[in-house]
Amino acid sequence: xxxxxxxxxxxxxxLRVAFFSREGVVxxxxxxxxxxxxxxxxxxxxxxxxxxxxxxxxxxxLVPYPGRIMxxxxxxxxxxxVTMHPEALRRVRGxxxxxxxxxxxxSLNPSIAIGIQVEEVLLAHTxxxxxxxxxxxxxxxxxxxxxxxSRLLKQYPFxxxxxxxxxxxxxxxxxxxxxxxxxxxPTSNLDTTLQAAILxxxxxxxxxxxxxxxxITHDMGVVAQMADQVxxxxxxSIVEHAATANIFQRPAHPYTWGLLQSIPRLDDASRKLxxxxxxxxxxxxxxxxxxxxxxxxxxxxxxxxxxxPALRPLQEGHVVxxxxxxxxx
Length: 329
Ligand SMILES: Nc1ncnc2c1ncn2[C@@H]1O[C@H](COP(=O)(O)OP(=O)(O)O)[C@@H](O)[C@H]1O
Ligand SMILES: [Mg+2]
Description:
CATH architecture of the largest domain: 3-Layer(aba) Sandwich
Shape: globular
Largest sheet: 8 strands, mixed
Strand content: 15-25%
Bound molecules: adenosine-5'-diphosphate, magnesium ion
Helix content: 25-40%
CATH class of the largest domain: Alpha Beta
Order of helices and strands: EEEHEEHEHHHHHEHEHEEHHHEE
Radius of gyration: 21 Å
Number of helices: 12
């Protein structure tokens, strides 16, 4: 049975991240606030470059140079990860917060056998012996639907297909039944069968262990299947956040509406994929007004004359950053 989403386990508050590049200060994340709740999946969607990956990396304390967290807190069980000692943060990462990224080739060590890499995680965070870790690793890989796990343990990342590598990464991420899982486009580049298998593993993790999952994806089909809540990102800000059904049935921000229009629909073959016109703003020279204004079909004189709108509540659990939101009956 489905239990309702629980208490917030990660609270991101007023997060700002900038990259100090040669060309200027790239304002990648501009003051976002959201929570991940136990036993709940939050999908984060938005065009490429909207700040989704940087947000994920911020939670994990992995923002790369020349990026910096300028402001904000990331509370994990009430403790701020942003100011936590790097050593303590490393212990949280991998044990209590698992992660899986789009390209597992970059997260797996190419010169170390798969078995050793899975075992390392178990040895680092538990008091298992090497032999116990080996058996455990084999079980984890089998559970992830990887066949012939004893052979797999001896193989190297390059010997596996992309889908197998992704499942190895998931095995590692889920090995210690983390309370939180950050999954950044975990099924892009995979065929639909593999995608379905991995998504069902994520759902299982949520249902059986109450894991809070941040699922970053550009696939609205995945969102519809998986997410309890959706946060829509645009130019480093959350522009709408609501329960999944509300996002699909009552999208309030014109950008959210546009995202939904751009999905091809199986029930209407004549309806072509309609990519949204225009481009997101330059993050080095962000305008003071609403960053979506130049692309917006609802733009008004109020929008042009005002600083960018803040998120405000429409109804229970549904917030939008727009002066002229779309109204539904
Ligand atoms: N290493 C970097 N140096 C400079 N800018 C970066 C770097 N990484 C990311 N950015 C900037 O941060 C923005 C957000 O990136 P990202 O979070 O990866 O977007 P998304 O995951 O939504 O596609 C990008 O538009 C880019 O301008
Ligand atoms: Mg990304």
